[in-house]
Amino acid sequence: xxxxxxxxxxxxxxxxxxxxxxxxxxxxxxxxxxxxxxxxxxxxxxxxxxxxxxxxxxxxxxxxxxxxxxxxxxxxxxxxxxxxxxxxxxxxxxxxxxxxxxxxxxxxxxxxxxxxxxxxxxxxxxxxxxxxxxxxxxxxxxxxxxxxxxxxxxxxxxxxxxxxxxxxxxxxxxxxxxxxxxxxxxxxxxxxxxxxxxxxxxxxxxxxxxxxxxxxxxxxxxxxxxxxxxxxxxxxxxxxxxxxxxxxxxxxxxxxxxxxxxxxxxxxxxxxxxxxxxxxxxxxxxxxxxxxxxxxxxxxxx
Length: 302
Hints:
globular; GalU_uridylyltTrfase_bac/arc; nucleotidyltransferase
């Protein structure tokens, strides 16, 4: 992993969580439960994202939500009454777990802003513009679950150097046919874990893709990203694309990809959610026998 130099580099103090999406691929489950609160085994997706940001030293977390998804704010913030009820019933371990998971008053600065209409990821990030702290900002997409230690965002912040590139995006190599589902880097070179780039294209046709380096849901972006988002015309899908704003700033602040060490699961899809649940369960000894039995049963059925 690329280490920071001894120069006085800016801290990444803010993380933006775009959580306003309707989660239509998980209906009917998401009719009443936001997709970010769907569990991977027993842990909501958003908890993984919060813990990743917390481990990376983020000071302010901004959740860009939708008025219909107030359950997210209820989950994120501490519920003192529930904790006290659990302690009164002798369930201190559960109360402690809820307290540790919550973003308690004084531990981190939490802000909620609304995105009333689904106008794209770029628009969601722009909704947070008035709440960010000075300096570069991180963006975390909770339904892109990246399991590994250290966390992906911690790795990216450790490697971030605006002298080399002000915009950094997490990337992974995908199959040629899959590029049409991602933003894709135009690669000019490599520097350790960094993939140097002179631009990116949103959801290209495989025949026109500049590479197979696909952007996934972690970003560390120079603060100029908000200026580049303002007035940006709709792009792919008729939405304001964050990819287009990043590409707009390449000539000014630079761009690089980052090859993270963890394993990424697309939990915006049912297949990815199932894969993540199996992988996460496999990290816990108490579920290994169940998984082994299930695997044996499936092999016997073939």
